[in-house]
Amino acid sequence: MSWTDVADAAAAVCFLLGALLGLIAAVGVLKLPDLLSRMHAATKPQVLGLLLMLLGLGLRLRDPGTIGLLVLIGLFQMLTTPVANHMVARASYRAGQLRVDDLVVNDLANDDYEGPSRGEP
């Protein structure tokens, strides 16, 4: 058994685990009851699934230029997903779409933000 056979088998395992985590994320988004739980289900397994897919693709293709591009994709995904979900959670809190009594810690309870006044963008 050569190194390429081992890398191809590891790539197949990464692809299967990544697809399974994507499926778990989709089921979580459909079945969980509230917005924050759905956001958690959409981010954690989905990002890990994507990283496993990128790892499998890197193991399968074995081209240094492609691997560098895959690393950049994974890095940008890891940087942008938490920020985007934080902003969605904050916006939904301010819009009153969360059940505040279900929160264990509410750091925004004393936030005096009232939204933009009329005439401001």
Relative helix content: over 70%
Average pLDDT number: 89
Tell me the strand percentage band: under 5%
Give the termini distance in whole angstroms.
Answer: 64 Å
Over the alpha carbons, how many angstroms does the gyration radius reach? 20 Å
**Uncertain segments:** 116-121
SSE pattern: HHH
Total number of distinct structural domains:
1
Secondary-structure-based class equals mainly alpha
Largest β-sheet summary: none
Can you count the helices? 3
The geometry reads as: elongated
- Number of E strands: 0
Looking at the chains present, what oligomeric state does this protein adopt? single chain
List the helices and strands and how they pair.
Elements: H1 3-31, H2 35-61, H3 64-94
Structural summary, described in words:
The chain crosses the membrane at residues 6-30, 42-61, 67-89. Keywords: Membrane, Transmembrane, Transmembrane helix. InterPro entries: PhaG_MnhG_YufB (IPR005133). This is Na+/H+ antiporter subunit G. 72% of the residues lie in helices and 0% in strands. With 121 residues, the protein is mostly helical. It has one domain (3-102). It starts with a helix and ends in a 27-residue tail after the last helix.
Give me some keywords for this one.
elongated, mainly alpha, single chain, 121 residues, disordered C terminus, 72% helix
